[in-house]
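Honest question from a wet-lab person: if I give you the sequences of every part of a complex, can you actually get the arrangement of the whole thing, not just the pieces? Trying it with mine:
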Amino acid sequence: MDSPARSGPHTLTAMPEPTHDDPTIARLRAEFGDAVLETHAHRGDVTAVIRADRYRDAVRLLRDDPECDYDFLTDLAGWDRLKLRQTPRFEVVLHLYSLSRNARFRLKTRPEDNAEPVLDSIVDIYPAANWPEREVYDMFGIRFTGHPNLKRILMYEGFEGHPLRKDYPFNKRQPRVVEREIPDDRPGMIF
Amino acid sequence: MAVSGGGPGFFTSRLSDGIAWARKWSLFPYPFVTACCGMEYMSVSSAHYDLDRFGAAWPRFTPRQADMLLVVGTISHKMAPVLRMVYEQMCDPKWVVAFGVCTCTGGFYDNYATVQGIDRIIPVDCYIPGCPPRPETVLDALMKLQAKIQKQRHGLTGPVRPAHTDSNA
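Yes, you can. This is the full assembly:
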């Protein structure tokens, strides 16, 4: 099944590539059915979007199934689709790699709640997800339930908010030391 | 400054000028290197550009033995208290050089993480623009800092004025 037609300002210009013959997609569809919300491919890179409640099961299948055997977590990232006016707002992206098959796969999932997004942690499946999940929590405020040590990893203690959320003001600063007054030597000048 | 001929020497110039002369030719830099400008700092501090000509070649990796704080690279808000503590640990007289545009103004990092110029945290004597600055620019800044030090007055000849409040540069 191909990805559904996209609409809005961010329509892909590239021709959608078929994904129905991809063995990993077939495996996911056989196992999870409707929970596979969307699939697409671009120049051989295959992506599936899985419903959040089957996210852990899908990750476990991708790692453990001998036909999939994605034994290496390349990266785990998040992003905020607020400005795209899409819902659910947040998306978490996994890049997986299979050393034995030399194959790559991208798995996405969307935590339901836009205000307080919560997602299952996969640290017990891929230990390499530990720090990336902390980073996603730090930057986007997605809470990973079951994470052994979910606290900020980049920003400092006392930092309020999550800076990569699109509604975080781009010019908001939270200095840790009291800043000196810098006299405005060219008042009215806009830089 | 000159020393008279055969006998025991004496300063024919003012004491403050002599002390300033000694200071400006024996700067001990503390390189506070956080980012890519450090590459250019390594280039400057290597033999090709020969900072020993200015007496400023020997980096002291403790602020207590340094008198020139070279802030080289982007300073984040997370790093700001560390930079301030390093500055406060230095003994007077001390001078601060902002090396590269990130330390001067934050550069193009106009974002949640970056201090928009280290002069919001500590006083700065000399700003070096560039991303990164060429070694020649750094040498130019070093000579300008020397000129500034030469003009600064010493406490022995009058009321003590902290170096960083002296604005005649």
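Two things worth pointing out. The mean pLDDT of chain B is 83. The longest strand of chain B covers residues 29-33.
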